[in-house]
Design brief:
Layout lengths: L1 H26 L4 E5 L3 E2 L2 E3 L3 E5 L4 E3 L7 E4 L4 E3 L2 E3 L10 E6 L4 E3 L2 E3 L3 E6 L5 E3 L2 E2 L13 E4 L5 E3 L2 E3 L3 E5 L5 E3 L2 E3 L3 E6 L4 E4 L2 E3 L3 E6 L2 E6 L2 E3 L7 E6 L2 E6 L2 E3 L3 E6 L10 E4 L2 E3 L3 E5 L7 E3 L2 E3 L3 E5 L14 E2 L17 E2 L3 H8 L10 H12 L10 E2 L21 H33 L8
Parallel strand pairs: 1-4, 2-5, 3-6, 4-7, 5-8, 6-9, 7-10, 8-11, 9-12, 10-13, 11-14, 12-15, 13-16, 14-17, 15-18, 16-19, 17-20, 18-21, 19-22, 20-23, 21-24, 22-25, 23-26, 24-27, 25-28, 26-29, 27-30, 28-31, 29-32, 30-33, 31-34, 32-35, 33-36, 35-37
Antiparallel strand pairs: 38-39
């Protein structure tokens, strides 16, 4: 009997603790601040402005049933909590934190084992800062969106870590700033649709299927981002789909299947800005992919280096109506006789095997094979069978362009020095190795007795 009493007391105590926070919220005045001590609490819902402050990581546990936290009403805030164990029903869109109302601040929380992470619905003027947003261990299509804004204007998404989720979506939301975030191992790092006046800057976006994808909007600024190793079935670092008025500058695209993909952008070419400038696009399978109908882009001051294919055209035709002037091309074979930093001959993209790949993508399987080498040899040996250039750069740069400091402090401190040493030292090491090899062979030949020189 005594043991039964102890068990019942423990259960009742747990239920009391779980329900205590909701009771305090219900009893609090509008605009009150509630400090929450360590413990495990049940799902909560507010109906008035409330400021929830967690001390030493109290836990709000959804019990695997539905939403963990719902903030209804404007000007609420929540910080310092572990929010975990939402329901796993995609039809109900079970969420770690749902906001319905303006002016919410969500700062410094950890989301664990939640289907959807943070969901804003008609919630303008919100701040989402310094959170760690995880997901459930499910197939990527079965996960919910780590972050979703729907009709939520003037929001700031800053310094969050978003990983192992599905997408971070910005839908029908204008004047959104996405700054200093880390996104990794998701399907889409950030995906906008019908959103205008969006700034995406200083983010580290890696190991996703697609880094950033922008669709059906206007007035985008994409700057100082690091987009690398986004290698899903599409594998774009940055994709543009029928958008207008964009400036893409000082970004690093590296290790992606496609660094930058452009489809139907800009939509309206008259009096429109479409600038792709001062980016480093390096070590991707394809640096830049465009559809033949794309026109009106100014592509200048970029460093295009060590991509398997610098620029691809998905379809037949050349990239007419785009300005490719003043870029550095790692495979440029020209010279600079007057030392003005600009090549004296235009850069023309007209490799025979590349043109075959653009028309028949399955031939990519043959890259670096003897067949590839044979086709390229024939193209060089018989200039008359070379394809027309995809585009020309009349003023190719002889040196890579400098770009501004690239984003996030999310990269460990030791990474950049070692990366810089690798970038600066690798050419020197290769040159030294080739020199030593050459000297060795030369000395070896000179030491051999020539035929017929026997005494």
């Amino acid at each position: 009997m005594r043991g039964l009493i102890v068990i019942l007391t423990a259960l009742l105590g747990g239920i009391s603790q779980a329900n205590d926070l909701q009771a305090r919220i219900d009893a609090a005045d509008s605009g009150a601040t509630i400090e929450v001590q360590p413990g495990v609490y049940g799902p909560i819902k507010t109906d008035k402005p409330i400021h929830l402050v967690g001390r030493d990581w109290p836990v709000i546990d959804g019990g695997g049933k539905s939403d963990c936290v719902v903030l209804v009403g404007g000007n609420s805030s929540i910080s310092g909590f572990v929010i975990r164990n939402s329901g796993d029903d995609l039809d109900r869109e079970s969420t770690g934190l749902r906001v319905i109302g303006k002016g919410a601040t969500i700062e410094g929380n950890q989301f664990e084992n939640v289907l959807f992470g943070i969901d804003l619905k008609s919630a303008a003027d919100c701040v989402i800062r310094g959170n760690h947003i995880g997901s459930m261990s499910l197939d990527i299509a079965r996960r919910g969106d780590a972050l979703r804004l729907f009709r939520s204007d003037n929001c700031l998404i800053e310094n969050n870590t978003i990983e192992d989720g599905r997408d971070a979506l910005i839908w029908y939301s204008n004047k959104v700033v996405i700054r200093g975030n880390v996104s990794r191992r998701n399907r889409y790092g950030f995906h906008t649709m019908y959103a205008n006046d969006v700034t995406i800057e200083g983010n580290d976006i890696s190991d996703n299927s697609v880094g950033i994808y922008l669709m059906y909007g206007r007035n985008f600024t994409i700057r100082n981002n690091r987009l690398h190793k986004n290698r899903g079935p599409s594998g774009y670092g940055l994709g543009l789909k029928e958008i207008d008025a964009y400036t893409i500058h000082d970004n690093l695209f590296s290790g992606n299947r496609v660094g930058l993909y452009i489809d139907g952008s800009p939509m309206r070419r008259k009096a429109n800005k479409a600038f792709i400038e001062n980016n480093v696009i390096a070590s991707n399978d394809i640096g830049l992919t465009m559809l033949p109908a794309v026109k009106g882009n100014r592509v200048g001051g970029n460093t295009m280096s060590d991509n398997v294919e610098q620029v691809a055209v998905l379809g037949r035709g050349a990239l007419e109506g785009n300005d490719f002037t003043g870029n550095f091309w790692g495979d440029y074979a020209g010279y600079d006789a007057n030392h003005d930093g600009v090549g004296d001959q235009p850069y023309a993209s007209r490799k025979l095997f590349e043109s075959l790949i653009d028309k028949e993508p399955k031939l990519r399987l043959m890259l670096f094979s003897p067949a590839h080498d044979a086709v390229e040899f024939i193209g060089r040996a018989i200039p008359s069978i070379q394809p027309e250039p995809k585009f020309t750069d009349a003023r190719p740069l002889m040196r890579p362009a400098a770009i501004h400091t690239l984003a996030p402090a999310a990269v460990p401190r030791y990474t950049m020095p070692f990366a810089a040493l690798a970038l600066l030292g690798a050419p020197a090491l290769i040159a030294a190795a080739l020199f030593v090899r050459f000297r060795f062979l030369t000395q070896r030949r000179s030491s051999l007795t020539p035929i017929g020189a026997c005494a």
